[in-house]
Amino acid sequence: MTATSTLPSQLKRIAVQAAACIALVALTACVYRINIQQGNFVKPEDVDRVQAGMTRSQVRFILGTPMVTDAFDNDRWDYYYYLVRGHSRKKDTRHVVVQFEGDKVARIERLILPAAAAAAPETSTPVAPPAPPAEQPVPKT
């Protein structure tokens, strides 16, 4: 009689253990992940305000201090921004380069902007292997 009375208690114990395992697995998905933000947040409107002929101090006032100043080229300022939001795998990346000639803006390059990244699908383009060199006849000696 003890064998039949212990069967429901064993099932109850297995059910409690299974519920505990399911709850543990469900709770691991609730881990908070912080946003990772690095660099200068530069709005496209602010970049549009920068024009050729502006001085370095005017650019610094509009865009802020550059993230990277090239040690070998004092006439190049890089504004780089990178953001990954929590569990999302999508990265928001912006890179603006301001080139100076003397103390005046010569040109502005927008290397990566979110609008351009959203318009273009995220696909990898396969690179074709280089063609083998053409065989040349060996001269007879």
Helix content estimate? 25-40%
- Number of DSSP strands? 5
Structural class: alpha+beta
Main sheet properties: 5 strands, antiparallel
Instruction: Report how far apart the termini are.
Output: 105 Å
CATH fold title of the domain at 36-119: Beta-lactamase Inhibitory Protein, Chain:B, domain 1
Q: How much beta, percentage-wise?
A: 15-25%
* CATH-scheme architecture of the domain at 36-119: 2-Layer Sandwich
Poorly predicted regions: 119-131
Total helices: the number is 4
Shape: elongated
- Quote the average pLDDT: 76
CATH top level label of the domain at 36-119: Alpha Beta
Q: Report Rg.
A: 30 Å
- Run of helices and strands: HEHHEEEEH
Can you characterise this structure?
With 141 residues, the chain is an alpha+beta fold. It has a domain at 36-119: Beta-lactamase Inhibitory Protein, Chain:B, domain 1 (2-Layer Sandwich), CATH 3.30.1450. It is 33% helix and 25% strand. It is built from four helices and five strands. It has helices at 2-28, 44-49, 56-63, 114-119, and strands at 36-39, 68-69, 76-84, 91-101, 104-112. Strands 1, 2, 3, 4 and 5 form a five-stranded antiparallel β-sheet that branches. The longest helix is centred in the first third of the chain and has 27 residues, at 2-28. The chain is elongated.
